[in-house]
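Data availability (excerpt). The following record was deposited with the supplementary files.
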Amino acid sequence: MKIRVVNPLVELDGDEMTRILWQWVKDRLLDPYLEMDTAYYDLHVKHRDETDDRVTVEAAQAIAEHGVGIKCATITPNTARVEEYDLKKAWRSPNATLRGLLDGTVFRQPIMVKNIPPTVRTWKKPIIIGRHAYGDEYANRETLVPGPGTTALVYTPADGGEPVRQTLHQIDGPGVIQGIHNTERSVRSFAISCIRYAIQQRVPLWFAAKDTISKTYHAFFRDVFQQEVDAHQSEMKAAGVSYFYTLIDDAVARVMRHEGGILWACMNYDGDVMSDMLASGFGSLGLMTSVLVSPDGAMEFEAAHGTVQRHYYAHQRGETTSTNSTATIYA
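Predicted structure:
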């Protein structure tokens, strides 16, 4: 008899090779044994294009409603992909949309197997990355500067108060500028999610930024994180969870000599880069899970790797591929 799964599962289908892998996982490992209700959303790049990316928003709303979702890797189109799939425009990353709408933190953890020892010989236990998944470079505004002029940051209060203006740079020729942002609400949610995950996993919690250089932006993250650690001190102590803050460059140096068994909380860009470094060090992105956790407990699971474009083209030509399905199965 099949096992009845009571709660609906939100299913986010994706692109290229991961779409094929997911179908195989369902056919061979899930459908023969489980009776499931699924809320299906097709995030194939063409369908996102046809719906003006509305389908991604609806999928995020469904995850918030039902509490759990599974997502395949998706294409974030560049110019070449826009041409390849004849898209209206280069749509933003579906993962960025999901993270923004769910206000989630991404936790990535390597899958350790006996026959693939870590490249870094000191690593004995998994190192979990907690990536703040909102704002910064991933919700930026940027523009090319054609010639000499003044670039500035401007804040205009909603209550009609006097605007605050800060000169960014008196540029003397062509260049480029970028503006990024974050919110206290999102940073606080990030800190709380990391604390809760560390308590759940019973591992020490690290947080790293670069407040010596970014004395306002990064320092804001550091201070909010410390406030939440102080507020949850009794819970952390009961679970045996310690907290450690350091500079991001110091954290990188320490991690290379650490045995593992820690949760390393990172700002958005740092988490993006460091999770790939850890995946490679522990084996590959095919051996790393990824879960997006919202402050209210909704979760979206996926493999940490991309759409495996090269294998997909080989598959289309009828060739045998060696795509690693482990992370998809774990998700």
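Summary of structural features: The chain has a mean pLDDT of 93.
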